[in-house]
Amino acid sequence: xxxxxxxxxxxxxxxxxxxxxxxxxxxxxxxxxxxxxxxxxxxxxxxxxxxxxxxxxxxxxxxxxxxxxxxxxxxxxxxxxxxxxxxxxxxxxxxxxxxxxxxxxxxxxxxxxxxxxxxxxxxxxxxxxxxxxxxxxxxxxxxxxxxxxxxxxxxxxxxxxxxxxxxxxxxxxxxxxxxxxxxxxxxxxxxxxxxxxxxxxxxxxxxxxxxxxxxxxxxxxxxxxxxxxxxxxxxxxxxxxxxxxxxxxxxxxxxxxxxxxxxxxxxxxxxxxxxxxxxxxxxxxxxxxxxxxxxxxxxxxxxxxxxxxxxxxxxxxxxxxxxxxxxxxxxxxxxxxxxxxxxxxxxxxxxxxxxxxxxxxxxxxxxxxxxxxxxxxxxxxxxxxxxxxxxxxxxxxxxxxxxxxxxxxxxxxxxxxxxxxxxxxxxxxxxxxxxxxxxxxxxxxxxxxxxxxxxxxxxxxxxxxxxxxxxxxxxxxxxxx
Length: 481
Hints:
Strand 19 and strand 20 form a beta hairpin. The protein is globular. The protein contains 13 helices and 20 strands. By secondary structure, the protein is of the alpha/beta class. The relative contact order is 0.22. This is DUF1501 domain-containing protein.
């Protein structure tokens, strides 16, 4: 199979062409969204009312500055931040996460997630797919058709949709390197690009600005240049000149085409025709969908609680999508490598990254808890890796010190979805460099998400030649439920 390439022209079947043409007959305009893909509900798909919000911090959150502080270590290890107490006796986290500290009864930590890569692309692939092994033909410069499928792609394929939206969505952007290359691990890989997760691209690409724009945007290397990005919430509308009357006429035409579909495709499996058509129409008329995506026009008090920035808007959108019935929402908090703090680490974490994250995640937990949905919604937050125990400085690039890549260990934040609050699984050595108790693999991390989604261990997806591929490659992280 060819490598993933956003500019290539995929081969499509006659049935798929008819479905796509049927949607275009409606004259739909769907700004900032990938092509509408709602698949037929196959018998092997699972109906579940459970959900997950997977918060991904591209770049690598430092465990020493967040959830696994080492205040008694030497200065070159401990860093500049101080720990603060949480509501749980003996549990301390960074002083720059005070709102989460007050909600520690709602969340737990795994301080011992480990894998073998210190490279960004491979690290992304490992965590986003929940697979430690390197796939055949892996290319760090671009996604390949032989890559392992992402957790989001698998969830989108094996779960039956409960709404006219797909069961799995990624927002507010694809993870793209500042050079413009697309990072592997986000897509369906060997499942086939037709099963890529659905991306809501509300955050425009920027090569030199990172973080929660417009309030907290910054540049790792302080190169200057204003960030003019606008968080563009997707909206669904009839295209220009498409009146309701004309739309109704086209719907009638679609019905006539529907009468002929047995002739057009005698092979069966034509249910997706109706799924595409009904989804395209209902998206235009579903107030819940518009409500979920229109976050920049939400009540000011709600926006202030989450933060009027890309982090806050993204998590507010995720929370609303879960409300509408979407099962898994992956939220990339910051564009590619926003958390890659090789230098200028302490001011950038303190001033630009931790405040909007602390506020937005806390607001999300409050909303889910107040609505009673937290018990059935897993919130999980991690990066592709952690940071080195020892502080270093690349003086030719950065004004101030930081930490480098470290796949050997990172901390994972978990709440809801059956997770009991106030627990800590795993332990690292005295410098926060390696797990010394209950080491967990990415396969355990992925299994924790699949379990929270209500997927049994017998769940599998089919490849193009109908071979089953079971999704569980490990056991869920123990000691959390």
